[in-house]
From TrEMBL:
<protein>
    <submittedName>
        <fullName>Hemerythrin domain-containing protein</fullName>
    </submittedName>
</protein>
<feature type="domain" description="Hemerythrin-like">
    <location>
        <begin position="16"/>
        <end position="146"/>
    </location>
</feature>
<dbReference type="Pfam" id="PF01814">
    <property type="entry name" value="Hemerythrin"/>
</dbReference>
<dbReference type="InterPro" id="IPR012312">
    <property type="entry name" value="Hemerythrin-like"/>
</dbReference>
Amino acid sequence: MASQDGGRTAALGRQLSLAHNELRRLINDLKNDLKSGAGHRHTGGGGTLAAHCLAFCGALETHHRGEDDGLFAQLVRERPDLAGTVAKLVEDHELISSILTRVAELARQAAAHGDRGPDEAIRRELDGLAAIMESHFRYEERVIGAALDRMVPDGDWPEPVFRPVRT
C-alpha cells in the first residue's frame, strides 16, 4: 500500500540521485588520478590506482545489481507499465558491465606489470564509461525518480542501490 504523503518514495528518489552523485565523484577521482600520473603512486585513499579502479568497478556493479534485483524488480511488480523502461535500463547495465570488465582487466594488467602502458587505455575506457553513465543516470533519475516520487508503494528497497561502496 502506498504511503499517503509519498515521503518515503520521494526520499528514495533523492537517495538514488545521491548514490549516482557519489558514483560520478568516484569516476571523476579515477580520471583525475590518471591525468595527474598517480596511476602507479599511492592515491589519496592510500591504495594504488589499480586498487582504486577495481573498487570503483565493484561499487558500480553492486549498485546496478541492487537496482536490477531490488529496486527495478519492485518497481515492475508495482508498476508493470515501467517494464519497457526497466528493460532498457537493465540493458544499459549490461553494456556498462562489459566496459567495467575491460577496465578491471586493464587495471589488473597495470598492477601486475607495474607499467604505465595501460593508463591511456584505461583513460579512454573511463571517458566512454563516464559518458554512458551520465546519460544512463540522468534518464534513470528522471524516469525512475519520477515514478518513486509519484507514490510507488514502499517495499523492501535494497541498501546497495543507495549506498555505493566507498573506495
